[in-house]
């Protein structure tokens, strides 16, 4: 294992223990329950939008699973609170592209944009683990779509 792989592994392990965003939100605009049927990882994620509906104000989640799914949720929550829905959509696309890369290097600008989430590039080498890393991202995308629809229906 080279130094970069070791650093990425440590980022994932640390994030799995830190569990940023863990806990239910009392007030939320969107909610999504997702299960990875291949391994049993699951998450119930809640999302609160900013007052104008353009940004992610807060993310809360509860779930269980492997260190990859838990770390991905933790990093995603910390990274995306406060960002616009447009920026979230871009980061989602970048993360998904990285997960589909089969572990090949990603451009530096994407790695910088993904921050600690770039640590999952090594996970992309293992197709059965990709679903673990994507679980929270898929839940957030679904919850964001619900929240956006709710905001649009009130305007």
Considering the chains and any ligands shown, give keywords for the structure.
alpha+beta; three-stranded antiparallel β-sheet; Sufe protein. Chain: A
Write the layout of secondary structure elements.
Blueprint: H1 3-18, E1 30-35, E2 42-49, E3 56-64, H2 67-80, H3 85-99, H4 108-114, H5 127-154
Antiparallel strand pairs: 1-2, 2-3
Please explain how this structure is put together.
It is a single chain. With about 160 residues, the protein is α+β, with helices and mostly antiparallel strands. The protein is about 50% helix and about 15% strand. It contains five helices and three strands; from the N terminus they run αβββαααα. Helix 1 (about 5-20) packs across helix 2 (about 65-80), helix 2 (about 65-80) packs parallel to helix 5 and helix 3 (about 85-100) runs antiparallel to helix 5 (about 125-155).
């Amino acid at each position: 294992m080279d130094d970069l792989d070791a650093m990425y592994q440590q980022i994932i392990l640390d994030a799995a223990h830190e569990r940023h965003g863990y806990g239910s939100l009392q007030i939320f605009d969107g909610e999504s329950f997702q299960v990875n049927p291949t391994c049993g990882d699951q998450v119930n994620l809640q999302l609160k939008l900013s007052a104008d509906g353009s940004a992610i104000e807060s993310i809360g989640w509860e779930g269980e699973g492997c260190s990859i799914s838990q770390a991905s949720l933790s990093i995603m929550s910390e990274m995306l609170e406060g960002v616009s829905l447009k920026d979230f959509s871009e980061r989602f696309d970048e993360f998904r592209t990285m997960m589909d890369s089969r572990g090949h290097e990603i451009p530096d600008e994407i790695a910088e944009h993904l921050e600690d989430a770039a640590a999952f590039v090594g996970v992309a080498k293992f197709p059965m683990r990709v679903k673990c890393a994507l679980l929270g991202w898929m839940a957030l995308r679904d919850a964001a779509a619900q929240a956006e629809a709710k905001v649009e229906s009130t305007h």
